[in-house]
Specification:
With 130 residues, the protein is an all-alpha fold. The chain has one domain (15-122). Helices cover 67% and strands 0% of the residues. It contains four helices and no strands. Helix 1 (15-41) packs antiparallel against helix 3 and helix 3 runs antiparallel to helix 4 (81-110). The longest helix has 30 residues, at 81-110. It is elongated. The N and C termini lie far apart (75 Å). InterPro entries: PhaG_MnhG_YufB (IPR005133).
Length: 130
């Protein structure tokens, strides 16, 4: 065991694996940061939902790939546990985003909020009150 509690010393990692893992981690962190900035910058809920949806799939995917590269190189055997996590994220993140957006649309339609953005694509309409 190393001083960090890892089974393999990170200094003993091959240079190609360290570089690949570092680049994937930097890419994942950048994508997640952009998604977080999207939450702060965009005005409406319907615009804000896109940042985290993309950040979850691409950012987490990059971090998971970095983990696979690191542990495969350090343990000298294929480590693919992260594929199960990635499959779960890729299967659930778009569905959750769609359900959250649909719930927001129905909430806005029931409250008759014309300015909220639920009727922007003219898919849903709010009937005029008489």
């Amino acid at each position: 065991m190393s001083a960090l509690g890892l089974a393999v010393d990170p200094a003993a990692l091959p240079a190609w694996a360290a570089l690949a893992a570092a680049l994937l981690l930097a890419l994942g962190a950048t994508i997640v940061l952009i998604g977080a900035l999207g939450l702060l910058r965009l005005r409406t809920f319907y615009q804000r939902i896109h940042g985290p949806a993309i950040a979850v799939t691409l950012g987490a995917g990059s971090v998971l790939l970095a983990s696979m590269v690191y542990f495969t190189a350090s343990q000298s055997r294929p480590v693919v546990h992260e594929l199960i996590i990635a499959a779960f994220l890729l299967a659930t993140a778009p569905v959750v985003s769609m359900l959250v957006m649909r719930a927001a649309v129905y909430r806005d339609l029931r409250a008759r909020k014309r300015e909220a953005g639920a009727t922007a694509g003219e898919v849903y309409t709010i009937p005029d009150e008489e």
